[in-house]
From TrEMBL:
The lineage of its organism: Archaea, Methanobacteriati, Methanobacteriota, Stenosarchaea group, Halobacteria. One of its GO terms (molecular function) is zinc ion transmembrane transporter activity. It comes from Halorubrum persicum. Its main location: membrane. This is ZIP family metal transporter. It is a multi-pass membrane protein. The keyword Transmembrane helix applies.
Length: 266
């Protein structure tokens, strides 16, 4: 069975992928609203496929349908409760290109934000990302501790893929707060690494006290991810005139995850 060092390494690598999504802030003149909406759609497709093929189905293979569905309802309900308790920032994205994008007034408004407001926005965004990533890390840790190394590695791969567009989706509004590019990259990376590593270690250790937790934990992570998709990603990717791009990216993300899952399992 994988030791705790391996759990930290695998979940940490998956978390670091979040930082890759922040790299476009260094070339922000090339980022359009269409790309932003498509990134949200891609993340949504990856998350839905990961929920079904990486969490729900393996959970049902290792446990009962009722255990997985109970975890799913708890995970989805917990995410919604967390959103209510922590009213994190749903930033209004502004295009970086001149046409139809940020204006001089936008720049003046951003410059007028003081440090306290900027830090508050960053903390709110960080809280949102933590809510999204912690259940995924929990599932990785529980899978490793349950002796399901193959399932855990598949989860790590698909979560890492999902973290890239997820990181982009959060890096863009974070950059709009006026932070430097390096700080945006640093905070985005930490937002993926810290919750996933901490949650994976917690899940790994938890199995030592109560075995057979993977079905419930996988359902919990799947419920939280599905709630994120329908509560945030899909609504945020529509209504700006790029719904077709977001929908197409959703399908690409879903197919990509299924292919990766099949290749890794084989």
């Amino acid at each position: 069975m994988t030791d705790i060092g391996g759990v930290v390494t695998v979940s940490g690598v998956a978390g670091v992928a979040t930082g890759l999504g922040a790299l476009p802030v260094f070339v922000r003149a090339r980022v359009t609203h269409r790309v932003y909406d498509a990134a949200l759609g891609l993340a949504a497709g990856l998350m839905v496929a990961a929920s079904v093929f990486g969490l729900i189905i393996p959970g049902m293979e290792e446990g009962t349908l009722s255990a997985v569905m109970t975890g799913l309802l708890l995970g989805g309900g917990g995410l919604l409760a967390g959103n209510y308790a922590i009213p994190h920032l749903h930033a209004q994205y502004r295009e970086w290109l001149p046409e139809g994008g940020a204006t001089g007034d936008d720049a003046a408004d951003a410059a007028a934000d003081d440090r306290e407001v900027t830090l508050r926005k960053a903390l709110l965004i960080g809280g949102a990302i933590t809510l999204h990533n912690a259940p995924e890390g929990l599932a990785i840790g529980v899978a490793f501790a349950s002796g399901l190394e193959e399932v855990a590695l598949v989860l790590a791969v698909v979560i890492g893929l999902q973290n890239v567009p997820d990181g982009f989706a959060f890096a863009v509004p974070m950059a709009d707060t006026g932070m430097s590019n390096l700080r945006v990259l640093w905070y985005t990376t930490l937002s993926g690494v810290v919750p996933q590593v901490v949650a994976s270690v917690f899940g790994f250790l938890l199995v030592g006290f109560a075995s057979g937790l993977f079905p419930v934990a996988s359902g919990f992570a799947a419920g939280a991810m599905l709630a994120v998709v329908f509560r945030e990603l899909i609504p945020s990717s529509h209504g700006h005139g790029h719904a077709d791009a977001a929908t197409g990216a959703f399908l690409v993300g879903f197919v990509l995850l299924v292919v990766v899952d099949a290749v890794v399992v084989v």
